[in-house]
Give the backbone structure.
Amino acid sequence: MNMSEKRGNVWVFVEQEAGKIASVSLQLVSKGRELADRLGVKLEAVFLGDKLENAVPELFHYGCDKVFLAEDPRLEPFTVLPYAKVIMDLIRAHKPNILLFGATLKGRELAPRVASEKLAGLTADCTDLQIDDFEDKKNGKSYTDKLMQIRPAFGGNIIATIVNTWDDPQMVTVREGVMKLGEPDTSRTGEIEKVDVALTEAETVIKVLERVRADKEVDLQGAQIIVAGGYGVGSKENFKLIYDLAEALGGEVGASRAAVDAGWISHDYQIGQTGVTVRPRLYIACGISGSIQHRAGMAESKKIIAINTDPDAPIFSCAHYAIVGDLNTVIPQMIKAFKSKQ
């Protein structure tokens, strides 16, 4: 980067439903604040929908300096074409340095469209974001203060650090729960810039005829105790052991991707790179081998107990307590021991 050029600001696309800001967006605002401070630039939010002004102060409380507020009935409910058009107009006008999206259904549809239109890079499902210098030895170029986009790669066998040397903004998606939510400062205020929503028939061609909503079966991110089962549980019927232990401990049930893919439990319970990220006080992994994708979703739990018949299972690398044994024997013993102490 030519240091005579002014570096753009850090942006967060803020997702909302009926005016309620998505938790992943507030987590990204918290991370965005950290990145902006490191770069010495402002943190700005891009907030699209209709009748949203009452929700804006929350973005200031979590660290935004400015909110680009686009309000228009045509932006409700979410459809990708109008959102992409408004965001592209803003990018061309203000040239942000970094743009963060949640890896939600909306974010995964919107971010690639914006990146393609802008001819910018996009890294999906990042597990960490840092600012560092980068030297491209092959082309003999050096870059200062680039966004290090960190995520598992090659089936989770390695952790890759990706650097975007294409046109700004440097764009990433991040799943809910990966970035820690900061403490809100209710005294913080900021600037609102109202955006002229310039849409044509081409962007509003898609109409939503009907919306069907269904609540998630479980809120794993709020759980303090989680008992998770993997492929080693053996069957859908045997998953009753996982439920029994969770009930005895007053916790929630979780699962690895292998258990979900086997059809033993629904995706709402999946923990890991393609599920949810959790940080409970106690995490008990039962029959979970511990791929890097799964560990990415639970490694920051305060206490981890792993039960597995394989003493070399990768899950033991992040467990505080390792139990090498058959969960069919171990779990009933744990339930009995716990109930005897109550």
